């Protein structure tokens, strides 16, 4: 009889521009690896060769003239490939997967801010994501102007969405908080307007509370 590998856990980080998702994805992966958890960090749009090509088209603004429905379809097409090539194989092999953005970004950016019909968005997500829902979603919350300032300090060239106005980004923050309110079993809101280490500590607490099996000998609580 062959050995069975238990499925890994799927964690997503969501939030507005410059909220600290990439930074925290890396720090969380470091913490998990220190505890012996084989962890893969990936991102959206992207995370597989074809999805990275689609990312280029989306973030350059080339798809924007086609409207938010076309963008939602493109983000979802990239997600199908990302799931197929990267996420599902890793989870099946027992790895934990941390994705810097996932389907909630399509819900917020294209669905809410693009004013797309909820029924269309639900169907698109059903087709693209199906049963592959995250086990835990960390919504990094901070005032939009602080996030944009951080993103601009890092790069002077604004991408397709960074270039949107203040009211778009305020609306985004509210859209992510609404998702967290609707799905409290999956989502935890993290105060991202703190020093990196404090944000990381809050994230670790959420991961411990929601996902870590404390009976496992190699997974210890932080002091
Ligand atoms: N999009 C994406 C959609 O519209 N629909 C979708 O379905 C999907 C999947 C992706 C764009 O695509 C859109 C959303 C986005 O506009 P991206 O380049 O991946 O583009 O953009 P973001 O995901 O927003 O990534 P950013 O890099 O801008 O933000 P992060 O990852 O949240 O922030 P991070 O960690 O890179 O940090 C930004 C800066 O702040 C500093 C960092 O050092 C860095 O310089 N920082 C902090 N500074 C102070 N205090 C802290 N706690 C800090 N944490 C990080």
* Low-pLDDT segments: none
Major sheet:
5 strands, parallel
**SSE pattern:** EHEHHEHHEHHEH
| First-residue to last-residue Cα separation | 40 Å
Question: What small molecules are bound in this structure?
Answer: P1-(5'-adenosyl)P5-(5'-thymidyl)pentaphosphate
**Main sheet: which strands, in order across?**
2-3-1-4-5
Describe the structure.
- With 223 residues, the chain is α/β, with parallel strands linked by helices.
- Helix content is 52%, strand content 12%.
- The protein has one domain: 3-Layer(aba) Sandwich (Rossmann fold).
- α2 packs antiparallel against α3, α3 runs parallel beside α5 and α4 packs antiparallel against α5.
- The N and C termini lie far apart (40 Å).
Set down the secondary structure blueprint.
Elements: E1 10-15, H1 21-34, E2 39-43, H2 49-60, H3 68-92, E3 96-100, H4 103-112, H5 118-129, E4 136-141, H6 144-154, H7 166-182, E5 187-191, H8 196-210
Parallel strand pairs: 1-3, 1-4, 2-3, 4-5
Bound molecules: P1-(5'-adenosyl)P5-(5'-thymidyl)pentaphosphate.
Residues 17-23, 44-45, 59, 75, 100-101, 105-106, 109-110, 150-151, 154, 159, 161, 195-196, 199 line the site of P1-(5'-adenosyl)P5-(5'-thymidyl)pentaphosphate (T5A).
